[in-house]
Structures
1.
Amino acid sequence: MVYTDYLQRVLFEDVDARCVVVRLQDVIEEVNKRCADTPAVAQRLLSEALLLSALMSSGLKFSGRISLQIRADSGPLRMLVADCTDQGGLRGTVSVDSAERLPEQTSDLIGELSGNAVLTLTLDPSEGGQRWQGIVPFEGRCLADAVAGYFERSEQLPTVFRLATDGKVAAAIMLQRMPGDDSDSDGWNHLEHLLATVEDGELLDLPAETLLRRLFHAERRRLFPARELCFYCPCSRERVENMLLSLGPDELASMADEPEPVEVRCQFCNQSYRFEPSELAALYPDEAVQGPPTLH
Ligand SMILES: [Zn+2]
């Protein structure tokens, strides 16, 4: 099966390390279509975040999702979120405060975020289980650097990323040392050296299998079948209802008092959920929440 969007893993037999390749095309098109008004530099950063969340999803040991978030208190880019489920469902969104203040180059945008933003990685199991979050200052020359720095410091897992995007296709490769083994530094250094030879064109154009064979042809390795990735947003009317309920009865009552319906739009997929005042009032059936008075 040939996919346009996929993830492929390889394990090395003689070094405790793994390598993952991700290629995104339809997902990038879907996400960019949904944030068409967002300047290209922010779209590029979002593409990189989608690649990184897909790469990291390959290590999930439970059903759920991994989410990568950048949040800045000031500056033109306020928030960026990309997440990927264990089933390969990706979504992302970026919120820009003032598009005209955004620099054109990704490196300049990274410069603005460094020291001014935080990077959060969240593991969110879907079937109960403990939600886990790691929060570190955003540091590095690129987003991949910031995430690699996180793995190095917090997880003690040496990790190397290479990312490439051309606006339509985004592709990336990750080399990661397995936990608990640092005996074979030579083997690891050799793999790292091989990975450093990969070029953007190879990442974007070559099928993962060909790329991995070309890079690591002399290494004993075990290749796993490619897994498809796709755009997926789990939002639903029920989830929006729960969000509205969390606002509390007083807030809902004042919303239900307004004559106009309330429209909630999902920031990830733009799906709109509309609630009439009577539907808002019905969310708290046991509370004294009334809709607007009617004449009859
Ligand atoms: Zn949605």
Note: The mean pLDDT is 91.
2.
Amino acid sequence: MSLTNGQYSGEELDGFPIFSLDCEFIGKSFEKADLKRMSEDRLFVGLDRDGTIVPIYSDQSLALVDDRVRKIINQLTKLPQTTVSIVSARSAERLKKDYYSAEAILAGNYGLEVYFPDDTAVIQKEALEALPLLRSLRQLIADELESTLPICLDDHVLSLCLHYHLVPEHEQQIVHQKVSAFAKQFTGLQFRALPTSYEVLPPFDWSKGHSLSVIAQRLGLDDGKTCFLFIGDSEADEAAFQWCNEAGGISILVNSREVEGSAAKYRVHSPGQVLAFLQYLSGSRQ
Ligand SMILES: [Mg+2]
């Protein structure tokens, strides 16, 4: 399927320099049955944030939701039989600052905390129990690493993410050694090594797939009559792709290259294409 028709022309996206203007999908085209379900069925749209609706920046302060993305998400939330959720590693508090429509479900910390439009929330009890440990570790990282090295520590409250991409290569070993020592000290937390960061999470099995289960159950969307769609760009989104696939839904990976082993059924190559796709989706459900 191509989105390079008049409705989604470069003109419409003009002045949006952070996004690619090339809206033509690469990879597989959408199957007719999926297009039909996306336009006609009750639809759940799950969206990762960073790398999916916001381009990746090494300077986190630049990673903001563009007005056009916010506008299209807000339009989607107002359509009948359409539910939209942002499912991100960032805290729900941070997602609230993105100022989506009040109808958008905000699932922070991979959905360990989910805030619904009716002002209710589902927060995993075990995650809350890990709070004192996370706070102690946060202080140790500040004292022993942040004070001497250019690390960036994202405090998502229910998880921490320590980025070390700005640390000179010859000093990165210090980060690895410190984190290894922290992991031995804080056995009640889960440490996860990512390419240029470490994530620290509550010590139980959790993923964005679990988060989709929570949302589907809470909203009664788990009756087999909803088309679940999830768009994400990283390993952390694979569980959500799998969950959607198992529910007979649609999964879309954002990556300019083929990713071996990804469960995603479709692929787009940039957040710009995600925006174009969401515009298409909104138009098809009017
Ligand atoms: Mg992402």
Note: Residues 128-201 form a domain with the Alpha-Beta Plaits fold (CATH 3.30.70).
